[in-house]
Structure formats: C-alpha cells, structure tokens
Design a protein that fits this description.
The chain is α+β, with helices and mostly antiparallel strands. Helices cover 42% and strands 15% of the residues. The chain contains nine helices and nine strands. The chain is globular. It starts with a strand and ends in a 6-residue tail after the last helix.
Length: 262
C-alpha cells in the first residue's frame, strides 16, 4: 500500500504550503534539509523550518501537513501506491483499519451531536480506498485533492443506505474532518431542505472546520487557513457566507434557517 523513503525527489509543492521571505540574521543558520549554511534568501514553512530556496523545487512535501519530507525534519516519509506522500510524523496517526475508523466515527458523531445535528442515519458503511478508486466512485474528471465521497443506494426492500469512501492513510484529524464533511452530506440527504446546491459543499465544509477548530493544533490551524484562503466560489465565497452566519447566529439558528440560504 505504501513504501518508506528518506531521500528528496522532485514533486510540486502542496497547495496548503506557505512561504515567508528570509531575513538577514547576525547568527549563522543552517538549512533544515541539507544542514548547510543559509544565505540571505531562504524559505520558512508553516512549521518554522528554514531551508534553501532550491529545495522548493526538488523536494517532496507531505500531502497532509505540508512539511518538506526529509530525514532531518520528518525522519523520512511514505509514498502510497496512488502517488500521495505522507511524512513519518503524520503516519503515526494514519487511519488504516476498521477499528480506527470506528473510533474516529464515534468521536465525530459526538461532536456533531453537540451542535444539534442528531438525526443522522446509522445505516452507513465507511470504507478506506486509494485516490484512484475514490475518483472512480466520484465519477467524472479525476481530482487529486479529493478525499471523500458519499454515495446513496437502495436495497431490495427499497431501504436507503449510504457508503462513505475516504482516502486510506490520512492522519487522524484530517480523516475526521473529511468524515464530518461526508456525514453532513448524509444529514442533508436524510433531512430534505431547499438549500441551494451551490451551498451544499460549503455547508458540509462547516463540518470539516468544526473538527479542526475543536482540535486546535497547529496542524488544524494550517488546514483552517487553507479553507480561509480558498478562492473557489463554492468552497471559498459560499463557505465564507455560511461561516459568517454561523459566527453571528450559532449552530441552532443556522440549522433552523438553513432552507432560507440560496
């Protein structure tokens, strides 16, 4: 399913990675990657690691936390069969088994119930799959940033059930944020409303943000900032509209007036 590696290989940097310009310091500082002295121009990642600008172009970055993968910073990393990279630090909590899925499910359901969303179907299966399989479940054009999909089915008795597919090997908090997003989809399916289709994904992203806010770690702050920086009309603009309403009125009022959002 994955292979371990330590060396640097070329890959484009992750979309949620950010850079800060280096400044001239009196003390000599060394590069976090090659351990050679830094000059006046260097980069700093969102974790505070300083490195030569050349490593931006020849390094591999973790698809989950955005750290550059190296022996010095992350003690190496892993490459999944579907092309994703995960550093050894994120690998420590990676969701890879049914028991881990169920533990995370219970945690997410508890958090969702706490905001007043309680009538979610229990007829749900959660499956871990790779990115190639996930894009097939989604259908249409492949999406390298896709992390979860919810499909609806009917059994022989015409009873509705759901299958949630999530990427194998995501670190725990990222997995739970994706699961919350997909469970919000299930809730919308189970509770008919007139919420505009343009706001469905934005609403479900409030579930992802809830998990990250409750976790309140630097890892979560990076993902929350990425959501803030999103410029897409649905995942960016519409998410901001719903987030602002949530901040102003709270979950109870937002859910009560959800059908008025178009």
């Amino acid at each position: 399913m994955f292979t371990k590696f330590h060396s640097l290989i070329f890959i484009s940097f992750c979309c949620i990675f950010s850079y800060l310009p280096g400044i001239n310091l009196d003390l000599i500082q060394t590069c976090s990657i090659c351990l050679q002295p830094l000059n006046d121009n260097f980069l700093i990642d969102t974790w505070g690691n300083k490195f030569h600008t050349k490593h931006k172009h020849n390094g591999i970055f973790c698809n989950s936390c955005s750290r550059i993968i190296s022996q010095g910073i992350t003690k190496g990393g892993y490459k999944y069969d579907d092309g994703r990279y995960l550093c050894s630090l994120c690998q420590l909590s990676a969701i890879k088994s049914d028991s881990m899925v169920q533990n995370s499910y219970q945690s997410v359901i508890k958090q969702i119930h706490s905001i007043g969303i309680k009538n979610i179907s229990s007829n749900i299966s959660i499956k871990l799959i790779n990115l190639i399989e996930l894009n097939n479940k989604k259908g249409g054009k492949s999406h390298k940033n896709l992390k979860g999909v919810t499909n609806t089915y009917y059994d022989e008795a015409n009873k509705k059930y759901y299958e949630i597919f999530i990427l194998f090997g995501l670190p725990e908090i990222e997995f739970e944020s994706v699961l919350a997003h997909e469970l919000f989809h299930v809730w919308l399916y189970e509770n008919p409303n007139s919420l505009s289709t343009d706001f469905i994904e934005a609403f479900c992203n409030l579930g992802s943000a809830m998990i990250y806010k409750n976790n309140n770690t630097h890892f979560s702050q990076i993902h929350l900032q990425a959501m803030e920086d999103e410029t897409d009309s649905i995942y960016g603009i519409n998410y901001q509209i719903l987030k602002n309403r949530l901040n102003k009125y709270g979950w109870k009022e937002l859910l009560k007036h959800l059908t008025n959002i178009k």
